User: Fold this.
Amino acid sequence: MNQCAQCGAELSPDSTRCEQCGAGFDPWSAPAASTASDRAVSGIAPMLSRSPAVAVPLKSQTLYIVLGAIIGLIGFPGIHNLYAGYTRNGLVQLICAWVSCGVLWIPIYIWTIVEVCTVTHDSDGRLMM
Ligand SMILES: [Zn+2]
Assistant:
């Protein structure tokens, strides 16, 4: 048996108004289960992919060779590798040449010449022009 929400009087099942206080009510308004909460937001977040269209100018093979052959010759080996993105190799060459007080300079310079003669791509795999 329903009860009036206003006065607590018992209500007949087919009545739409309280006979005691006259408050209207909807006999069918049971607390409805919300279906809105069932609609799961299933949208997949947009893939934040790195755009391959970012225009990065190609590196210069000539500059790479000059850096290796000339700058390496005057005491800064490895700069060509830093330029081409081979940071680890570049730092190894530069640090080894300096820490060894020049003892390793000749082998490092030979290593440098071999690199500038053979390496044609930067660390991203792009051909140096
Ligand atoms: Zn009532």
Residues 61-118 form one domain. Residues 4, 6-7, 9, 18, 20-21, 23 surround zinc ion (CB under 6 Å). The mean pLDDT is 82.
